[in-house]
Design a protein that fits this description.
The complex is a heterodimer of chains A (217) and B (218). Chain A has 8 helices and no strands. Chain A has 217 residues and is mainly α. Chain A has a single domain, classed as MetI-like (MetI-like fold). In chain A, helix 1 (12-44) crosses helix 4 (87-112) and helix 4 (87-112) crosses helix 6 (129-159). Chain A is flat, with a radius of gyration of 21 Å. Chain B is mainly α and 218 residues long. Chain B has one domain (14-215): MetI-like fold (Orthogonal Bundle), CATH 1.10.3720. Chain B has 8 helices and no strands. In chain B, helix 1 (10-43) packs antiparallel against helix 2 (47-61), helix 1 (10-43) packs antiparallel against helix 7 and helix 7 packs antiparallel against helix 8. The chains are: A mainly alpha (217), B mainly alpha (218). At the A-B interface, helix 2, helix 3, helix 6, helix 7 and helix 8 of A face helix 3, helix 6, helix 7 and helix 8 of B.
Chain lengths: 217, 218
């Protein structure tokens, strides 16, 4: 066996742009999914029955079906309805919706870990419900949820490779593309593996550094 | 020639679902065995076992499942050392390697959740390492291993959908075939999603009652 890497050199720009797309959808879907997930978590723990029902159904549906099927449904389903949706938008929307179901469960666990006395303390200080939530409940809940969110970010990055099946030109798509053109299957798969591993390690490192900086109290 | 989506198309979907279940079952068995070995290694004081297990867990958990599948199905035959797995065998191998790392991490966490005093107590009673694990540590660690283990199995059912990309006719691939046969992706993939939902949701509800019944009491 001999590894020949120089055939791949001309394709480095493709790899870089693929990695860029992967990182971009990871960051956007994580941010959007976290915000959406927070609302779904609030809906699930709400006292209003229809809202709670909605939150619960949302989480169960998206956590119990594979991302790949959700993406197929969004991408090909929209096409069937006559709406042309680009692979990029399908991936952004599909992964965000999927990710929100997971972050919602993480936030729900975080919110339920906050002692009840803090709600009472908030209202004792004359804060309204929104102020109590924003200034008293959210910070400790977020700190509890943070390690699980970091974990979710890495999983999201790894599963963004699934977007290649709806022909979004991210890292895995470019890998298959280069593989077809050069037939250097082993080499290009190894390079991609190293890139994915390196980036997910960097994500873990940065998240830990951020946690140390933000959660000093 | 196109066909209208109908009940007849549930047959290939259910065939695919059966293959998905088999795939996950065998991957859980092999992955579980890997997970126990690697988990014990990562929790042990033996330097070599610890380092090797930790590297395995970190490496596999840092790489997409899709890449593991590609490495085994497309890249391994390129080594020209006589490895050329069928689609089904590649799928089971990739999912087992994947499951081994995640289950290994769960096992490690479970063992390390057992209070240190229990290890010392077993040593003080003059137990051998095997006796210590068999009678003292494992029974207590199971409480921390079973619930996330079932959770991972549910995730594995969903993650196994990725083997459809190398052409293994699992539930997702069957859905893809039905979709191109009927030109009705919405109905096809909704049916696929419904089957996954029944499998995963049913399993998670079952595990919830199991935990309530058997694990709370200990």
């Amino acid at each position: 066996m001999n590894l020949v890497f120089h055939d791949i050199i001309p394709y480095i720009p493709l790899l870089v742009s693929g990695l860029g797309t992967s990182l971009m959808i990871t960051v956007i879907c994580m941010l959007a999914g976290t915000v959406l997930g927070l609302f779904v978590a609030l809906a699930k723990s709400s006292k209003i029955t229809p809202l709670r029902y909605f939150g619960n159904t949302y989480i169960e549906i998206f956590r119990n079906t594979p991302l790949i099927v959700q993406l197929y449904l969004l991408y090909f389903g929209m096409g069937q309805l006559g709406l042309d949706i680009s692979p990029l938008w399908s991936a952004l929307i599909g992964i965000t919706i999927n990710n929100a179901a997971y972050t919602a469960e993480i936030f729900r666990a975080g919110l339920s870990s906050v002692p009840k006395g803090l709600y009472e303390a908030g209202s004792a200080l004359g804060m309204n419900a929104a102020q109590t939530f924003r200034h008293v409940i959210l910070p400790p809940a977020f700190r509890t949820a943070f390690p699980a969110l970091t974990n979710q970010l890495v999983l999201l990055f790894l599963f963004s490779s699934v977007a290649s099946i709806i022909s979004l030109e991210e890292l895995t798509y470019q890998v298959m593309n280069i593989e077809t053109q050069t037939s250097r299957t082993l080499e290009i798969t190894l390079i991609a593996t190293v890139l994915y591993y390196g980036c997910s390690s960097i994500f873990v490192y940065l998240s830990n550094a951020l946690a140390r900086k933000v959660f000093k109290w | 020639m196109t066909q209208d989506f109908g009940w007849i198309h549930l047959v290939p979907l259910l065939n695919g679902a059966w293959l998905t279940i088999q795939l996950c079952f065998f991957s859980l068995l092999i992955g579980g065995a890997i997970g126990i070995i690697v988990g014990l290694g990562a929790a042990s004081k033996n330097k070599l076992a610890n380092v090797l297990s930790s590297i395995y867990i970190r490496l596999v958990r840092g790489v997409p499942l899709l890449m593991i599948i590609f490495l085994i199905y497309f890249a391994l035959p390129m080594l020209h050392i006589g490895i050329n797995f069928s689609k089904g065998f590649s799928a089971v191998t990739a999912l087992s390697i994947y499951a081994g790392a995640y289950l290994g991490e769960i096992v490690r966490g479970g063992i390390q959740s057992v209070p240190k005093g229990q290890f010392e107590a077993a040593d003080a009673l003059g137990m051998t390492t095997i006796q210590k694990f068999r009678h003292v540590i494992i029974p207590q660690a199971m409480k921390f291993i079973i619930p996330p283990g079932i959770g991972f199995f549910i995730a594995l059912i969903k993650d196994s959908s990725l083997v459809s990309i190398i052409g293994y006719i699992d539930l997702t691939k069957a859905g893809k075939v039905v979709s191109s046969l009927t030109f009705n992706p919405i109905a096809s993939f909704l049916a696929v999603a419904a089957v996954y939902f029944v499998l995963c949701f049913g399993l998670s509800k079952a595990s919830y009652y199991y935990e309530k019944r058997f694990l709370r009491s200990t």
